[in-house]
Amino acid sequence: MDEFGSRVQHSNTPSYRVVPFLWAGDGLGYSLLFPAKPHTIPSNTAVTRDYVEGQAATDPVARQALLCAWSSSDLTHVDRRQEEPGLQFWQSARQAESLPDPGVTIPPLPEDRPIMVYSEYPFINQNLTHPRFALTDNMADADILWLSSHFKEFLEFSRETPEKRINQFPGENVITIKDMLCVVARRMIKKYLPVTFNLVTELAQFVSYYQQLEKDGEDTHWIVKPWNLARGLDMQVCKDLTHILRLPASGPKIAQKYLHDPVLFHREEVGMVKFDIRYIVLLSSIKPLKVFAYNRFWLRFANIPFSLDKLDIYEKHFTVMNYTDTDLKQMFCQDFIQQFESQNPGYPWAEIESEIFTMLRGVFDGATAFIPPAGMGHSAQSGAMYATDLMLNWEKDEQGNKIIVPKVLEFNWLPDCERACDYYPEFFNDVFSVLWLGETEGHHVTQL
User: Fold this and answer.
1) Directed axis angle between helix 333-343 and helix 349-367, to 10°?
2) Residue closest to 405 by CA, chosen among 388, 393, 391
3) Burial, 40: exposed, middle or buried (Cβ in 10 Å; 0-12, 13-18, 19+)?
4) At what angle are helices 349-367 and 178-188 packed, to 10 degrees?
5) Which residue among 46, 112, 169, 404 is least enclosed by CB atoms within 10 Å?
């Protein structure tokens, strides 16, 4: 909106519609005015517009919540319960996919020759050296397809090529898209999910929750994330309700309670910083559910000591540094465990990791509790690798003792495995052994 358009005042009965227009000829933005009603407007009529036109046309409570960005309304009376959404939520703006034919017999992978792998992921091509596998550039010759684009035709795949395998499951977007992951996590492991609201479908509940926190004098910091981006893109940490309510204008978002008391890590050259942990998770079967965590995990650290101020400083509040021109702190997991236990006596890593694994299993229990599109679907031809990012948070148990609780943040499909291969050259040999050979002994995994 240009300077003129941004000065037009709001009205619930506007005289005009105002539409921003960018003219490529001069690179400038303009505001186009259209009469809001099909009749002549008197010359002395004030020019007004509806600030939330179209955003909550059928829900007066959601409209009232949106308008809190400009005029405060008390919505603490709104019911903040978050129910399991209906079918429309899972289907809306999602690309449909078919399910495998359950009547097709899936033959085992060949044992009398190398298993041929077609991979679109360069780190597999560079690092898969297991003698049971061989690479091919021809999809038709492949037994295993490791694709870098989303696959949707599972019905056709099962009928036309039952002998092949693929690196995806039907409905896996219920864990890899953030708004869906939050619903899935609430089914089984609610305590491991930071309080999260969908700013499209749960806007009024969010405003109600925020205002109640404010009334109670509780922390009101939130991190606002787009549904389907990663690497910290388009994420903001903020505490002002007006700011938060304007952010969905750039695309659908979730608002997730910012962990204001996270477990920190002492970096000698920096101080106490935020960190998060990435685990690789391998899913080899839905029925029965067989899911494994790779025991070697990766750490990501902030570069500036943590505090709840200067929320726009990326290196204080975010940990993804490997895609920006900043200092990248790297550490092997065994070194981290030693330092973590030294910095946090009385909190052995084995107990924390056990709870992390309980949390991760709960995500897949929730994801497989429903059939697609509200859950993940079984496919005897599928095996998949995901990365999950989590943080550790200080909380108190019923007796008032401080405890460390893991919090799931997101799951990523086709994660960046460059560091995994640099640290552990056998990484993809382990992955393929677990997913396609059913071998776990000696491959650094724990079944969840």
Assistant:
1) 120
2) 393
3) exposed
4) 110
5) 112
Distances (CA, A) of 228 to 148, 152, 253, 279: 16, 18, 9, 19
Q: Is the peptide bond before 373 cis (omega within 30 degrees of 0)?
A: yes
What mean pLDDT is predicted for residues 210-221?
Answer: 97
pTM: 0.91
132 and 151 in contact (C-beta within 8 Å)?
A: no
The conformation of residue 112, written as its DSSP 8-state character, comes to S
* Distance in angstroms (rounded) separating the CA atoms of residues 362 and 34: 52
Q: How far apart are CA 169 and CA 382, in angstroms?
A: 6
Residue 72 in contact with residue 64, Cβ under 8 Å? no
- Among residues 172, 171, 168, 173, the alpha carbon closest in space to that of 157 is found at 168
Residue 213 tokens read as 């926190």
Q: What span, in angstroms and rounded, lies between the C-alpha atoms of 18 and 31?
A: 6
Contact 39, 16 (CB under 8 A): no
Q: Can you say whether residue 68 is alpha, beta or left, with left for phi > 0 and alpha for psi between -120 and 50 degrees?
A: alpha
Q: Which helix (H) or strand (E) holds 357?
A: helix 349-367
- Cα 201 to Cα 199: distance, rounded to the nearest angstrom: 6
Model pLDDT, residue 284: 98
Phi-psi region of 238 (alpha: psi -120 to 50; beta: other; left: phi over 0): beta
The CA dihedral of 36, 37, 41, 46, to the nearest 10 degrees, is -40
pLDDT per residue over 357-389, tens digit each? Answer: 999 999 999 999 999 999 999 999 999 999 999
List the beta bridge partners of residue 392: 406
Q: Are 118 and 146 in contact (CB under 8 A)?
A: yes
Question: How many Cα atoms sit within 13 Å of 41 on the Cβ side?
Answer: 15
Do the Cβ atoms of 16 and 8 come closer than 8 Å?
yes
Place of tokens 């953030």: 178
Beta strands in 165-234 (DSSP E): 165-166, 196-198, 222-226
Burial of 100 (0-12, 13-18, 19+ CB in 10 A): buried
β-strand pairing of 298-301 with 275-285: antiparallel
d(CA 328, CA 370): 40
